Amino acid sequence: MVSAGQGGGRRWAGAHLGHYEQLALLFKREPGFERIMKYLLDKYQSYGEHRGKIVLHDASPGECEAVNAFVSPKKFFKPPELSLKVTDFERAIGESPYPNATLKAVLEAYFNKPIATFSERNRISRSLYEKFVGDISDKFEGKYCADWLKAMFNGKQYGYNTVMNEYKSDDCSAKALLSNVCRAVNARYECDFEPIQLAVLGADITGDSHWFDADRTGGKLLLSAITFFFHEAEGYVPDHRQSLYDFFGIETNGISGTAASFAISFFDRSENLHPGFEEFVRRREPVSISEINLRNILYARSSNKKIYAVENPSVFTVLAEYIPKQSCGLICTFGQIRTVVARLIQLLIAGGCVIYYAGDFDPEGLQIADKLIARHASGRVIPWRMSEQDYAAIQKKQEMISEKRLRILQTIQSPILQETAQAIVKEKHAAYQELLIDRMIKDVVQAEK
């Protein structure tokens, strides 16, 4: 134990050791110093210098005895109160048989680790973080994902917390996480959002078909990235995950998303009629289609290569009853343009068809139509019964549209739909395609002409 001397001097048990590491060892051997050393460490890390006091209101006899035997001048602390100046402790170290020892050196030896102040650690941490951000940003500079990376790091959103949680655990793992998501984003743009299974995307990018599953870190970050691009393109964030997947042409499995068709023939890669689909055409029955049904289809078409597309299944069912034989075809999208619908439209265009699309008169309905028209700029997708005049013809308007939803209409690009959007903004009420069913029936009846 370190003990006080007599006649103004000191004698030290173990003084023959002669090194600050031996002094730290002496403190380790005396239990009374354990809390004192922890408080000294905290003071140094906080201030970067030796100042302040260590105040204990529950000091034990052993702690008081240890400090009384070490500090100079003697304080004769009595439990439970102990109030020790850090400078007194540091002075005692300087007066010990180890005059070259410093408080910092003793603390580092005692805790067996280098000691930095909180500000020093923050500076080092900041430097490492900036290098991390710089490395990943430089790696994907000029790529499609670069805008997302910039928005994420600068705005601390769109997956920032996911990345930082991984970074705090393992910066290398965080780099791999970001790299894989960036590669997935770039791949989706580079293939023009050609439909792909989520599992296939994961296998292509990482070798693990489950890497982008929604409940895994990679899947969560991918959805955050897609949310950024969706918001940039559409002006709002959807309420459900599937809209994000649809936006990027991603199917979670081959059978969950469906479309419906009527009077449409499908041709396989050998350009032979698909017998299963053709039986529905012969029997004049609608058929439900999943993406997996279309994997080996080369193109599709109706007899006159004219296709009417509606988003509402009830409208689809009524119209199917009026379509003449050897005439137009009909499809139902069930609202959002999911991957199977996008694929079906591609096949119809490959078959030389023109698609006339009808949606509801609300911000989301116009946005879907506008997106389809923009994606197929060749003029093969045309708005049907969605003009300002059609909207005006509906006397019974539906729900009032909020200002937030009306702002979606500011993104509409199609000239025809822009006029309709302006009318909707003026009236602030939605209207649905079921109320134009009589006019739609006339269109499909005359479609063979």
Describe the structure.
By secondary structure, the protein is α/β, with parallel strands linked by helices. It has 3 domains: 15-115, no CATH class; 131-251, no CATH class; 258-445, 3-Layer(aba) Sandwich (Dna Topoisomerase Vi A Subunit, Chain: A, domain 2). The chain has 20 helices and 12 strands. The strands form 4 sheets. A 6-stranded mixed β-sheet has the order 7-5-10-9-11-12. A two-stranded antiparallel sheet has the order 1-2. Helix 8 packs antiparallel against helix 9 (171-190), helix 9 (171-190) packs across helix 11 (217-234) and helix 11 (217-234) packs across helix 12.
Secondary structure layout plus pairing:
Elements: H1 20-29, H2 34-47, E1 53-56, H3 61-70, E2 82-85, H4 86-94, H5 103-111, H6 118-139, H7 146-155, H8 160-169, H9 171-190, E3 196-197, H10 198-206, H11 217-234, H12 241-247, E4 250-251, E5 258-262, E6 265-268, H13 275-283, E7 287-290, E8 297-301, E9 306-310, H14 313-320, E10 329-332, H15 339-350, E11 354-358, H16 363-375, E12 381-383, H17 388-393, H18 403-406, H19 415-427, H20 437-445
Parallel strand pairs: 3-4, 9-10, 9-11, 11-12
Antiparallel strand pairs: 1-2, 5-7, 5-10, 6-8
